[in-house]
Amino acid sequence: MSSAYFTPTRVFSGAIALRVIFLFYGLLQDAYSPFKYTDIDYMVFTDAALYVSQGLSPYERETYRYTPLLAWILIPTSWPGTFWFSIGKVLFAISDVVAG
Fold first, then answer.
1. Exposed/middle/buried for 47, CB within 10 Å: 0-12, 13-18, 19+?
2. Per residue in 22-32, pLDDT tens?
């Protein structure tokens, strides 16, 4: 294949498109399938964010073993509504693209 095909613009556009597709696929599968697309670690992250939003330590969540900064960043996931719960997934997808 030609190296002109793999330009940074095309690679990043493809990466972003795939993440958007997988994000929406995950939302649909989580809503309608008994087999959840969202990993259990995401629940741990969002539970820790809920604890932090209530003024508690994220380590109140038994299996939370990550940096407290992550819980602080994900505080919006503790706000009411499916949109806010899923915003952490968007942040993770953006971080993944930025990290390359």
1. buried
2. 999 999 999 99
